[in-house]
Amino acid sequence: MTDLTKPHHYKLATMANGARDRYEVSLNNTSALGFIEYDRSIGAKIYLVERASAVKYIGRTIQRMSQRFSNSINGKKYTWSASPSNSNLLVWNFFGLNEMEIEAIEAEFTLAMRVYQKGWPVNQTSINFRWLYETGNALEAQDYSIEMLKQYAEFEIENAIRDKVDVDQDLNRSIDILNSIRTLTK
Q1: Closest by Cα among 58, 131, 69 to 98
Q2: Domain count, the chain
C-alpha cells in the first residue's frame, strides 16, 4: 500500500440557482476560493461530504473536482446538494490508480463509514464491490479504507465535530469489525 496523504479539507456551500444549482468551495481556514492544484488535476480521487455530524455521501472521480461538481451539483444529480447548505468536503488523491482500483477503494471506504457511523451515508445511492478481486488490489482497498477512516476520525476531533472519547470508541469498534470481516488477509 502506498502512503496515504491526508485529505484536503474544504468548506462547501451549495446554493439554489433556478434550473442549475451552484456551489462554492474554499480551502478550510482560508479565504481562497476554489480547489487546490491537486484537486484541479485529472487523477483518481475519493471525496466525502459531511454535514451536521454525519457523512452524507462518498464518491470517486478521475475528473477534476470542479468538473465533477459542475456536472453533478449544477446538473442536480446529487441528492445531498438538493437544498442550500454548508458542508465539509474531504478529498483524497490516489494518482496512478485506474477507475476499477479507485472504485474498489470507494466501496470499502463506504462500508467502513457505514460501520463507523452505524448507518449508510444518508445520500449514498449505491456501493459497488464488483471490481474488488479483478483489480488485484483488494487487500490494499481494505487497508486504505481503514486508514481513511482513521483520518476521518482525526478530522472529527480536530474540527470539534464529535467528542474525542466517542470518536475513539467508535473508531476502535469499527476497526475490530472491519478486520473481522476482511475478505482477504495478509
Answers
A1: 131
A2: 1
> Is 119:83 a contact under the CB 8 Å cutoff?
no
Structure confidence at residue 11 (pLDDT): 93
pTM for this prediction: 0.89
Conformational region of residue 43, where left means phi above 0, alpha means psi within -120 to 50, and beta covers everything else? left
Give the C-alpha separation, 148 to 141, whole Å: 10
Specify if 3 maps to a domain.
no
| Contacting residues for 145 by C-beta, under 8 A, at least 6 apart | 105, 108, 109, 111, 112, 178
CA distance 35 to 68: 12
103: domain range?
A: 8-180
For residue range 86-127, what is the model confidence (pLDDT) as tens digits?
A: 899 999 999 888 888 899 899 999 999 999 999 888 877 777
DSSP strands (E only) in 31-166: 45-51, 54-61, 85-93
Q: Cell for 26?
A: 474554499
Has residue 163 been placed in a domain? yes
Tell me the per-residue pLDDT of 18-76, one tens digit each, with 9 for 90 and over.
666 777 888 987 878 899 999 999 999 999 999 988 999 999 999 999 888 776 665 55
Beta bridge partners of 51: 54
d(CA 78, CA 141): 25
Q: Is 67 among the domain residues? A: yes
In a domain, 35, yes or no: yes
